[in-house]
Amino acid sequence: MRTFSDMKGLPIYEQATGKNVGTIADVWFTSHGTVQGFVAEQRGLFGRRRYLPLAAVRALQNDRMLIDDARSFQPLPSSDSGHSLYGERGIAGNMVVAADGTTIGLLDDVYFDGQWGRIDGYEISEGFFSDLTEGKKRMQLAPFTAKEGVVMVDTTK
Fold first, then answer.
1. Are residues 76 and 8 in the same domain?
2. What are phi and psi of 131, to 5 degrees?
3. Cα 115 from chain centroid?
4. Start and end of every PRC-barrel domain (predicted)?
5. Which residues of the chain have pLDDT under 70?
C-alpha cells in the first residue's frame, strides 16, 4: 500500500528525452477518490506549479514519474473541479467527521492500492501521542464533502 507522501517530491521525466521536467508536489482528485492528475513544480527559469493530467502519465515508479511530453503541463484547474491534499483546496490536516457527527480524526494522507489513478483510503491521525503509541489509522475510501476545514465522510455507503 502506497501513500501520496511516498510520491511527493519524486522527479518527473519526459519519456522520449529523459529530461527532468519537474517534481510531484500534490495530487488532484474528486470527492469519490478518482485521481484526475498531479500538481507539479515545473523546472526551468520560471519554474511554477502546473497541473499534469493523469492521461499524460506513462509510468509511476518507486523513484520517478514518466510522462509523454513536457507540453502536457497545463494551468492549475479551477478550485471547484476537485481537491488536493496541500494546495488551495487542500484537505490534509482537516478534521474528518462521519455523517452522524462522530469525529474520526485528522486527515493526514491518502492511500493508493495498486492503481495510482484511484485513492483506496485515508490515513487518519488521532493526535501526536496517539500516533506514537497506537500508530495512524487507515480508513476505507468514502465519498466526502469538504467545507471550512472539515471533511464530512459518508460512511453509510
1. yes
2. -65, -40
3. 13
4. 4-70, 92-155
5. 1, 44-47, 114-115, 157
